[in-house]
Design goal:
32% of the residues lie in helices and 24% in strands. The chain has 6 helices and 8 strands, in the order H-H-H-E-E-H-E-E-H-E-H-E-E-E.
Length: 201
């Protein structure tokens, strides 16, 4: 009886240890290697579609219920961030309306841009297909703005494409990154967020 109990305890420990390699002990976030295995191909699809400005392809990858949320400076705001539905993404670059996307770091001025202007400034601000580093559910870049992505999104996989900098004269202050946020819906992973990051004051 004692041997059987010991064996059961051993199995329980094995399961516990195995689980710890796949999710964070505190909040259930998928660990980086597993996240990469799950989402790498999907993330590449999104990145290439963004690179090519292929809105039809992007729309198919956007969450069919939640749409995609645009966050200019890492702190995700459920009240302020602009959200586009999958259908609305189809006309993203043709949309001439000026939206209020948030506030510029440093000045506090309103970010008022068309979707196309926002794309060049706060989405695809560099060729992220050639990023220096790619992280899966791990933060590669840190500015002075609070990080809340893992609290706001439900069990996400977040892929970050990070450039360490471009001009040596700037001492790395010209770094930037793009984060693709995915959530699972009906067995598939969809894009729910686009988070921009850069050096902030």
């Amino acid at each position: 009886m004692r041997k059987r109990l010991s064996f059961i305890i051993f199995l329980a420990l094995v399961v516990l240890v195995w689980s710890s390699f796949n999710v964070s002990k505190s909040d259930g976030i998928i660990e980086p290697q597993l996240a990469k295995n799950i989402i790498e191909n999907r993330a590449n699809e999104v990145l290439l579609a963004l690179h090519a400005k292929n809105t039809e392809a992007i729309a198919k990858l956007v969450h069919p219920v939640k749409g995609v949320r645009f966050t200019p400076y890492t702190f995700v705001s459920l009240e302020r961030d602009v959200v586009f539905s999958a259908e609305k993404m189809k006309t993203f670059f043709d949309d001439k309306e000026i939206y209020h996307w948030g506030y510029y770091d440093g000045t506090g001025n309103e970010i008022r841009l068309t979707p196309s202007e926002y794309y060049h400034r706060f989405v695809y601000s560099a060729d992220f297909t050639k990023a220096d580093q790619v992280g899966y559910n791990e933060v590669l870049s840190r500015g002075n703005i609070l990080e809340n992505q893992f609290e706001v999104y439900h069990k996400p996989i977040i892929v970050e494409y990070y450039f360490q900098g471009f001009n040596p004269d700037y001492g790395g202050l010209d770094w930037c990154s793009l984060r693709l946020v995915f959530e699972k819906f009906l067995g598939k992973w969809y894009l729910v967020g686009l988070i921009h990051n850069q050096w902030t004051i």
